[in-house]
Structure formats: C-alpha cells, structure tokens
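Let's practice the habit of predicting before peeking. Look at the sequence and jot down your guess about where helices and strands might fall. Then scroll down.
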Amino acid sequence: MKSKMAANRRNQQGGIQLLLDAEQQAQLIINDARNAKLARLKQAKEEADNEIANYRSHVDSEFQRKVAGNTGDSNSNVNRLDQETDAKISHLKTEAARISLDVVNMLLKHTTTVKN
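Done guessing? Here is the structure:
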C-alpha cells in the first residue's frame, strides 16, 4: 500500500511539475505576443508620423504656391479698392458741398425762430 501511495505521490508531483512547465511556457508565449504588439504599435506610430509629415509638407507647398499666385491679384485688389474709396470720398464731398447751404439755412431758421 505504501508503494502505491508513493507512486501516486510521484504522479501528482509529476503532474504538478507538468502544469508548472505549461504555465511557464504560456507566460513566455504571452510575453512574446506583448512584445510583438508593442513593436507593431511603435512601427505604426512611426508610419503615421511619416505620413503626417508628408501630408503637412504637401499642404504647405500648395499653400505657398497659392499665396505666390495671389500676390499679383492682391496688389490689383488694393489699387481697385483705393480707386473706389477715392471715388466715394469725392462723391461725399460733392454732396456735402451741395447741401451744406441748405443745412446752414435750416439750422439758422430753427435757432432764430421763437415758439410760444
């Protein structure tokens, strides 16, 4: 009976050792998977950073091209606005000169008329 118990105990210890070995192997597999995942995330981040840099460069060059192309238009717009402003100022001065005598007469009339 003792030999049977000793054999059972050895089988249990062997089974426990087998489970410990399997657990250790599973832990190694999990660690490898984590490391692979971290490496892929790092690679994906680098790829995204490169793509962002390329896109930013492209957009910036397009913007610079448009700014360079619109500089001539900008000068002509400034000249056109200056001419329109001068024309409006001239028109306002003409209108003010035309009605200033009427305004002065109206003011004199209201200030010199006494009401009871």
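How did you do? The first helix runs from residue 2 to 112.
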